[in-house]
Amino acid sequence: MPHGSEDNRLPSALFVNRTNPKTKILPNNYGRRESLHTMEIIIGRDQQTRQLCIIKDGSARLYGRPASVPMDVSRHHISLQPVGAGKWQIRNLNEQNVTYVNGIAIESKVISEQDHIELGKSHSLFHWEALKEQKPVVETVDIRPLKQVWDEYNLANISVKRKQKNIGLLSSIPIGITMLGGLMSGILPDEFKPIAYVFTAIAFLVMLYGFYKRLTDNSIEEQEYFKKIFQQNYVCPKCGHFMGFKDYDLIVQDKACPYCKAKYIK
Ligand SMILES: [Zn+2]
Asked: Does residue 188 sit within a domain?
């Protein structure tokens, strides 16, 4: 595709309204997949508004007029990764995607900002200024629901520990009964001595019960289960990163997510 012809050719091209692009910040989690590669910028079509969608640092922005991006541009169409000195690695993100650099279809290529990028079979022009339009913004995240996750995890842990303690106590009871039986057989008159045997029998039964309790004790599994649930839920609602086994009150003191830098809402 020759240079310079695209403006007339593409009335519904990506950035029709260049002077007043409507940029908008999308709600949380939009770019969770991409937040793993913070330098990587994902470009595609927003499913709802059909504007150009630029995902960077885990947050997505819309650019251009609604319905300005043709349907042959996919949601995650290309990625751009800076490779230094004004150079970018451009990459098709899906094998169905079609991307042209200076009119030639590519899968992956190192390009510069003078190169002419078109998305989709309809050759929608990508304007580099779409990237420059992005002013840094302070993202926020509400982590208050994490307090309950932390509290529930602690309560669950306490109940498991209590159970383990009770089983520990149970195992010491037979020893006590046996000692008591032995003591009684020493001090009681002969005709009451059989009582000592009864004590021994009781001690034996309690010991068996203790064994049984130990065998059926699933507190380790329970603990692992609670830990797993906790690790799944004690995550930043924005970037999904696990917050660690750290008290909620300490996390709040950080004021922002250490992973995605989103500021906590008070
Ligand atoms: Zn985060």
From this structure: yes
User: 127 with 152, same domain?
Assistant: no
Q: Say if residue 76 is in the same domain as residue 169.
A: no
Could you tell me if residue 97 is inside a domain?
Answer: yes
8 pLDDT tier (thresholds 50, 70, 90): very low
Q: Which of 25-39, 69-83, 160-174 has the lowest mean pLDDT?
A: 25-39
Q: Which domain holds residue 242?
A: 141-265
Q: In this structure, are residues 199 and 184 in contact, taking their beta carbons and an 8 Å threshold? A: yes
> How far is the C-alpha of 92 from the C-alpha of 258, rounded, in Å?
31
Residues within 5 A (CB) of ion ligand 1: 236, 238-239, 257, 259-260
- Distance from the CA of 114 to the center of ligand 1, in angstroms? 35
Res 7: pLDDT: 38
40 CA from centroid of ligand 1 (Å): 17
Whole-number Å distance, alpha carbon 139 to ligand 1 midpoint, is 10
Helix (H, G, I), strand (E, B) or coil at 177: helix
> Alpha-carbon distance 8 to 39, whole Å?
33
- 238 and 165 within one domain: yes
CA contacts within 13 A on the Cβ side of 1: 24
**Token digits for 78?**
């290309």
pTM, 2 dp: 0.45
For 22-38, what is each residue's pLDDT tens digit? 444 444 344 444 434 45
- Gap from CA of 36 to ligand 1 centroid (Å): 11
Judgement on whether residues 158 and 84 belong to the same structural domain of the protein: no
Residue 81 pairs in a beta bridge with 89
Ligand 1 centre to CA of 238 (Å) is 5
